[in-house]
Amino acid sequence: MALRPAPLLILVLVVAALQESCFGSLPGASLHSMKYFYTSISDPSQGLPQYVAVGCMDGQVFAHYDSNSRRMEPRVSWMEKVGKEDPQYWDRETQIQRDNEEPFRANLEIARTRYNQSEGLHTWQLMYGCELRGDGSKGGFYDFGYNGKSFLNFDKETLSWVAPDPQAQLTQRKWDALSAWNQRNKVYLEGECVEWIKKYLSYGNRTLLRKEPPEVTMSSKLEVEDGMETHVCRLDGFYPREIDASWTRDGEVWLQDTLRGSVAPNADGTFHAWLSIRIDPKERGRYRCHVEHDGLQEPLDVALEVPESNLGLIVGCVVAGLVLVCVIVGIYVFFKRHQGDYRAAPSE
Residues 73, 63: contact at Cβ < 8 Å? Predict the structure, then answer.
């Protein structure tokens, strides 16, 4: 019997994959990255384009195409310089994506057949890109996915394809035999792709090469149940994306009883993140939120704050309540004492 994944789940997977494509990193310390994310959707009747392509540079969406508009278009102002320097750039990119639509639909149908899924909302995806790392090395990848899960990924060192899913092994054998194509993939990832990173950096240097330090704020809360404290260190408005933030105890990194949120984008192109820790109040002075970022002249060590006491608020509420009771009682007594007078009032 054919499986029918919930449409909402598939859409969540698509969004998650897009976020990973734009904001995720390959192994190693990434300095700059360019990545593309293509998706073909089986059921566009749910208000979605049947095919979408997005380009990302250092975590910033710079180009977008979908099967409704059928045009590759810039998403950041600095990409307009590309069209001025090369008037045919956007026409070429548009034609590439138009040519991709039919093969992606065909591959989606093949995947649905492999998994015996004839109905429901399904996706066929490609994520690929390259990175310039801090140590001077280059990274690159091709990763095909079905319904948000990896289907086949390219090993550029061995010029072969890896199949995490048994359903992909037939395709793996076919693609491994295409030695010339696999060699071209490697050449692109290590050559042309990296050259585009350098070119885009020259176009968007004011945006992509800027350094914005994080704004660090601390909040805290006393847990009434057990007397422990929860402290949250928030980092906001920083660029570039790479940031090293950790809790330290007595100057050493401390991982126990800690939580960490992923680095996420802001609307203005900067990023935000958070990390929390749960501690015994008696040891509060031993902990710091340690932050290192390219926008900072030197690392920050932010001390924990004393949780605000609720005693004043409680006392204030009690006093206000007593005042209100007194007013109500006073009004009641006043009307009770003058009730007879009001009844005896002569009529006109």
Answer: yes
Q: How far apart are CA 213 and CA 211, in angstroms?
A: 6
Model confidence pLDDT, tens digit, residues 272-316: 999 999 999 999 999 999 999 999 999 999 999 888 654 343 444
d(CA 272, CA 262): 8
- Tell me, rounded to whole angstroms, the distance of Cα 228 from its chain centroid: 31
Distance CA 179, CA 162 (A): 15
CA 31/CA 232 separation, integer angstroms = 28
* DSSP conformation letters of 53-92: EEEEETTEEEEEEETTT---EESSGGGHHHHHH-TTHHHH
d(CA 139, CA 33): 9
Q: Which amino acid is at 98?
A: R
Per-residue pLDDT at 251 exceeds 70: yes
3-state secondary structure of 270: coil
The tokens of 25 are what? 């990193």
Query: Cα–Cα distance between 193 and 62 in angstroms, integer?
Result: 15
Q: Is 285 helix (H, G, I), strand (E, B) or coil?
A: helix
Count other Cβ atoms within 10 Å, centred on residue 230.
Answer: 16
Nearest to 122 by CA among 202, 40, 182, 64: 40
Task: Report the DSSP beta bridge partners of residue 291.
Answer: 245, 300
Residue 343 has pLDDT above 60, yes or no: no
Instruction: Output the six-digit token pair for 88.
Output: 């045919």
Q: pTM value? A: 0.71
For tokens 């208000």, what's the residue?
Answer: 47
Residue 238 and residue 216: Cα distance in Å, rounded?
10
With DSSP H G I counted as helix, E B as strand and the rest as coil, what are the percentages for the chain, rounded to 5?
Answer: 40, 30, 30
Q: Under 8 Å CB-to-CB from 81, ≥6 apart: which residues? A: 203
